[in-house]
Design goal:
Length: 209
């Protein structure tokens, strides 16, 4: 995204609200700012890409996007889920479908992403694109060097945690229960100084989250 020229608009289509919010948070300042479709519609009723040239939008709201004559690219996250939204009863589905078709046909570039794309899906995607789509397999595996240990024994887990701390390693310990997080926190305090340990729970939230 950072390499895309300022005069090229970006339409990022996603059905995941969490990803949409994360994109808008990540690109909340600087030369390229991401705008969430719902914030624009709430105040203006329609979306002008001349003004909001990095749009993060759900399929159902594409009908609110005004005609745009400038250059733009389309990015579709989890395209299978987005295509399934075409049968949604939310909003004006027919108008959103027409706008989706128009955006895809006129885009400078199109990037669609999904963990599963079979031949039938590719044929369907090709109906929307001006040229034949080609597949890039993402083989990047950033966590291959990580080690995973599983146990139901809390004492053994704490013992291993203590070993890692004594080895000088940084440790992040996600917990599903607040009581478990507090147990780990108290144990870590028995080894480290108070300013070296942080705990985040519903009562003490991470300041950046």
């Amino acid at each position: 995204i950072k390499s895309i020229p300022d005069n090229v608009a970006i339409v990022f289509i996603s059905h995941r609200k969490a990803l949409s919010l994360e994109l808008c948070r990540r690109y909340s300042h600087g030369r390229r700012i991401a705008y969430l479709y719902s914030d624009i519609i709430a105040t203006e009723g329609s979306i002008d890409l001349n003004r909001y040239n990095f749009l993060v939008c759900q399929f159902e709201s594409l009908s609110k996007v005004l005609t745009f004559d400038g250059p733009y690219i389309v990015i579709v996250d989890e395209v299978n889920s987005v295509l399934n939204q075409m049968t949604s009863t939310c909003g004006d589905t027919h108008a959103s479908h027409r706008r989706f078709m128009n955006l895809m046909k006129r885009a400078e570039k199109i990037l669609v992403m999904d963990g599963f794309l079979d031949d039938d899906r590719l044929k369907l995607i090709n109906q929307y694109t001006p040229t034949k789509a080609y597949v890039i397999h993402n083989t990047y595996q950033p966590l291959r060097s990580h080690q995973y240990l599983f146990t139901s024994d809390k004492k053994q887990a704490l013992k291993h945690l203590g070993l890692l701390i004594k080895q000088g390693k940084n440790v992040v310990c996600p917990c599903t229960l607040k009581s478990d997080a507090e147990l780990v926190y108290e144990y870590a305090l028995s080894i480290l100084e108070k300013d070296e340990v942080q705990i985040y729970t519903r009562d003490k939230r991470w300041p950046n989250g």
